[in-house]
Design goal:
Blueprint (H helix, E strand, L loop, with lengths): L2 H7 L4 E3 L7 H7 L2 E2 L27 E6 L9 E6 L11 H11 L23 H9 L3 E3 L2 H6 L6 H9 L8 E4 L3 H13 L3 E5 L19 E5 L6 E5 L4 E5 L4 H10 L2 E2 L12 H7 L6 H4 L2 H4 E8 L2 E4 L14 H4 L8 E8 L1 E2 L3 E9 L2 H13 L6 E5 L1 H9 L16 H7 L8 E9 L1 H17 L3 E2 L2 H14 L12
Parallel strand pairs: 1-13, 6-8, 7-8
Antiparallel strand pairs: 2-9, 3-4, 5-6, 9-10, 10-14, 11-15, 12-13, 12-14, 16-18, 16-19, 17-18
The chain binds flavin-adenine dinucleotide.
């Protein structure tokens, strides 16, 4: 009987997808291991204590509009991003206000309030036997309407619009918080036995609709929230691989590794609030993929609980030539095949040098040609992003300073760019750069890129601009482009 047939026929089976030359238990004995480490997450189990229940990100970080004096009008309005977590915190943003008014033809006096958190919720579809057994197993659970609503959606504009102005046709019936792989095995086994639908939930930052409950699902729907499974299980410094439970948030994972002088280097724009399991299930891509790779390049092996058994490859070799790679089927499976519980990832030493940079081009076309040539020579730094003129103007508008051009370029004056170099502000564009690596390599790469940029009329525009552009990525997620709910 083949391994797959065994999986089909036996719900208890643990299949070993790569004949192990060294079994996992033996492996841990011979390697430089760090024993299991509990991690205090930046995001509490009751997410709504810290995060918005009806939008993106931290509750204390948002765009606000208030009146300088008298009634709120476009003239009297003061637009701010409040909170001090991001580089544009708590200062007036006059240019952004104008950009918003012009771009969306917005009358700030007509600002519409989002609906409050509902006071009643649809009755859950209950499976008493399932719930009773979950209680007996001592697994954390909740059937509160608030907990169910918060995990009924991802973070698409449609999701946010529905939260603020509408209702979801179906929300999950029960939330469970497994604490480890064994809990997930029990939950999935019970769900299978009682015909309960399971949706794995990591950070809830999905933009594919895959955690949204199907409208006509008649079975009870249970959300398996992985956030309490966030331990570092082991670290193998010799082979530079680490094993985490799948519910760890990106920011927790990198913070803990940094303490050890290590990094995975996977940084999707959502990494503050998305989880390792979510990255695997969505085949996520990170901003620094040029150096570190995307999640499929970082994953060594995955443990996944399916309704037919546990899928696991027991050897930790970074690559094997035996048979198909089942990681590739799990990656991007969006929770349809099972719940990922543990992931082994490649780690690297923290780079000796991190350098931000930016380049200005007279036109978008010049920027495209420059980036193409950089790619042809395989010279891409950890992150390189070309921003068109609309995005450039938008990025500049987020600057708090009175002078629109202030500090765009280290020491460079608007006059130099627009008069001497004759760049047209309405056509120019910018590339932001992040270099990571050994100092000499980083400097060499920067120099080579500047030489290529010059061929296409590009000018180095300084580190401050580059750093700001990179970090603003995290702020931009707080902007939702609808005039009805932009600023609440
Ligand atoms: C502002 C913003 C920026 C973003 N930037 C990026 C980006 O730069 N790169 C990128 O690739 N994506 C990006 N995304 C999309 C999203 O963040 C990613 O898809 C992320 O990987 C989802 O992780 P999550 O933990 O939030 O998963 P969730 O949203 O909770 O779930 C996503 C899917 O994975 C499944 N899933 C979650 N955990 C598990 C598990 N343990 N086992 C099995 N299935 C599981 C869910 O069932 C669902 O199908 C962005 C989204 C937003 C809103």
């Amino acid at each position: 009987m083949s391994e797959l047939e065994r999986l089909e026929n036996n719900s208890e089976v643990q299949i070993n997808l790569c004949s192990p030359t060294v079994a996992a238990s033996e492996t841990s004995q011979i390697l430089d291991t760090l024993s299991t480490k509990e991690i205090v997450s930046a995001v509490p189990r009751e997410r709504q204590e810290l995060l918005k229940w009806n939008g993106w990100g931290y509750k204390d970080s948002k765009f606000t509009v208030t009146s300088k004096d008298g009634p709120l009008t476009n003239d009297s309005a003061i637009l701010k991003f409040v909170g001090n977590r991001y580089p544009i915190g708590d200062t007036e943003l006059p240019y952004f206000k104008q950009w918003v008014i012009d771009t969306f033809n917005l009358d700030l006096a007509n600002k519409k309030s989002a609906q409050p958190m509902p006071s009643s919720y649809p009755a859950p579809v209950v499976c008493n036997e399932f719930s009773e057994k979950i209680k007996k197993l001592n697994i954390l659970y909740s059937d509160s309407g608030e907990d169910r609503l918060i995990r009924a959606h991802g973070q698409t504009l449609y999701d946010i619009h529905t939260l603020r102005e509408g209702t979801f046709p179906r929300i999950p019936d029960l939330i469970v918080w497994p604490r480890c792989h064994a809990d997930v095995v029990q939950i999935v086994k019970l769900a299978h036995a009682h015909d309960v639908a399971v949706i794995p939930f990591g950070g809830g930052t999905s933009v594919s609709g895959s955690i949204t409950c199907p409208k006509n699902e008649a079975r009870p729907i249970v959300i398996v929230d992985t956030s309490q499974m966030n331990r570092m299980l082991w670290l193998d410094k010799e082979n530079m691989v680490v094993c985490f439970e799948s519910g760890i948030f990106g920011q927790d994972l990198e913070r803990e590794l940094k303490k050890l002088g290590l990094t995975v280097g996977h940084e999707p724009d959502s990494y503050e609030f998305s989880t390792l399991g979510g990255w695997v299930a969505t085949r996520a891509s990170g901003m620094k993929k040029n150096v570190y790779g995307n999640i499929e390049d970082l994953v060594v092996r995955v443990k996944m609980v399916t309704c037919k058994g546990v899928l696991e490859r027991n050897c930790s070799a970074p690559r094997v030539s035996i048979g198909p790679d089942f990681n590739q089927i799990i990656l991007g499976s969006e929770g349809t095949l099972g719940v990922v519980t543990e992931v082994v990832l490649k780690v690297r030493k923290l780079p000796a040098m991190k350098l931000y940079g930016s380049l200005i081009f007279p036109m978008f076309d010049n920027g495209v040609k420059c980036l193409r040539e950089i790619a042809e020579y395989r010279l891409q730094p950890a992150s390189i992003r070309l921003i068109d003129n609309d995005q450039f103007i938008f990025g500049q508008s987020l600057k708090p300073q009175a002078n629109f051009f202030h500090s765009i370029i280290d020491g460079m004056k608007k006059a130099y760019v627009t008069k001497i170099k004759r760049f047209d502000v309405k056509r120019m564009c910018v590339a932001t750069l992040v270099f990571e690596g050994e100092e000499e390599a980083v400097k060499r790469q920067e120099k080579q890129i500047n030489i290529i940029a010059k061929k296409y009329g590009g000018l180095p525009a300084g580190a401050t601009n580059g750093e700001r552009g990179y970090l603003l990525t995290f702020v931009i997620a707080y902007i939702r482009v609808s005039k009805s709910f932009l600023f609440h």
